[in-house]
Amino acid sequence: MLGRLLLAAAVVLAVIHGSAAEGDMKMPECPEDQPPVMCDPEPCSLALCPVGTTCVNNNCGGCYAECVPITPAVQECEKIPPPIWGSYHCQTDNTGTERCYPACMEGYEFESPPAAEYVCVNGQFSPPGPYPNCRKSEAVQECEKIPPPIWGSYHCQTDNTGTERCYPACMEGYEFESPPAAEYVCVNGQFSPPGPYPNCRKSEAVQECEKIPPPIWGSYHCQTDNTGTERCYPACMEGYEFESPPAAEYVCVNGQFSPPGPYPNCRRSEAVQECEKIPPPIWGSYHCQTDNTGTERCYPACMEGYEFESPPAAEYVCINGQFSPPGPYPNCRKSEAVQECEKIPPPIWGSYHCQTDNTGTERCYPACMEGYEFESPPAAEYVCVNGQFSPPGPYPNCRKSEDIEMCPDGTPPVQCLTEPCSTVLCPVGENCV
User: Fold this and answer.
1) Per-residue buried b or exposed e for 304-341, using 16+ beta carbons within 10 Å of the residue's own CB
2) What pLDDT is attached to residue 421?
3) 208: how many CB neighbours lie within 10 A of its CB?
4) What angle do CA 278, 280, 281 make, to 5 degrees?
5) In angstroms, rounded to a whole number, what is the distance separating the alpha carbons of residues 196 and 185?
């Protein structure tokens, strides 16, 4: 306990004895040998404490004023940004001191050694930062891919720590011959477990459903979800409607559709008023779509390298037998801004194909002939930008794949869904090959 301030000139310790005052005053909790005393006035009202201290009333065993040091306010530190390809975490100990520690993502290492810790002192980190950035570790070992299972495939994902995880799967109607691992994780250049994936075989439990015939003046489409369940949906041709409501979906269960069908037929809709088509623009075309409400919407477009002479409407909607807006579509003219790219020659033993999207951007993709593979990986795509492909090419050439055993005539083998001899009956004395 600090010394008690005696109320006298230049004396730090002051002891102020007072009499018990009448009235309802809250009494402090005191030791048994120092009973509380009611002081009037409060001792600190008559005390003067040195700089850096503050006065606290003590009414135990008398009326005292105690000077205690002032605890400085805590100054928080502005966080240091995380390193590139890294992160950091901070901890505050029981003294209120904050300490931060940077770290690199898995597969990365610091460009230079960081401090052991970064400590917040008086509103500033010591050392002050920044943290050193991270770079790809030369010690990272990539894993050689495990071949896909027969009658199956696999996909891999890399999480934010740089860890690659792969998952095999069987084709629809097939199942694994033995259970695969939950995941195959790339660790230090080796998959764990190491593979191979178990192969797939035809599932004996799959019972296919015989298709329900399409409705008159209609059609149907079916989808199979990731559980192997097939669901079918009938539809009427444009301008037609069902004679009676169909089911929301027709589900294949144990070799039978539920409900069993047939689909209700379609008839000409009396409410439909068709719109006379708007002629296509010069140097352009249009396409129309009819949504599930029967509403037709049309969209004009210009040929590649052309642009509209004036902006068209976002869409032309058929309402009560008339398009809104009524048309015509604005015509097209040669675009002055279009710079065509000179085509990159195809790779040896390969080819390429190009696509132009709705923005007029051309993208090209090379490919190798069956039984051949690229000598080096090509770019994901080659994009025509301002008259030049990016990347500029050429495409990498193709070479004979070492994994494929070619036929005697030099052509690649063909994979058959069923062995040809399983469906052939040879004469007596002959074997099927």
Assistant:
1) eebbbeeebbeebebeeeebeeebebbbbeeeeeeeeb
2) 73
3) 9
4) 120
5) 13
**Are residues 185 and 160 part of one domain?**
yes
Average the pLDDT over each of 193-197, 276-280, 371-375, 428-432 and give the range with the smallest value: 428-432
Mean pLDDT of the chain: 82
In a domain, 343, yes or no: no
Provide the phi-psi class of 322: left if phi over 0, else alpha when psi is between -120 and 50, else beta: beta
Residue of 396, 395, 379 lying closest to 344 (CA atoms):
395
Q: How far is it, in rounded angstroms, from Cα 35 to Cα 20?
A: 12
Render pLDDT for 111-150 as a digit per residue (tens, 0 to 9). 999 999 999 998 999 999 899 998 877 766 788 889 888 8
Residue 370 lies in a domain: yes
- Residue 1 and residue 46 share a domain: yes
Residues 292 and 248 in one domain: no
Angle at 304 between CA 278 and CA 325, to 5 degrees: 25
The Cα–Cα gap between 339 and 304 comes to 11
Of 276, 301, 334, which one is at a domain's C-terminal end?
334
pLDDT in tens, 370-392: 889 999 999 999 999 888 999 99
Residues 46 and 2 in one domain: yes
Instruction: Output the pTM of the full model.
Output: 0.26
Is residue 377 domain-resident?
A: yes
The boundaries of the domain holding residue 97 are: 86-136
Regarding whether 256 and 222 lie in a shared domain, the answer is yes
Classify each residue of 61-77 as buried b or exposed e, where b means 16 or more C-beta atoms within 10 Å of its C-beta: ebbbbbbeeeeeeeeeb
**Domain-embedded: residue 330:** yes
Domains in the chain: how many in total?
Answer: 6
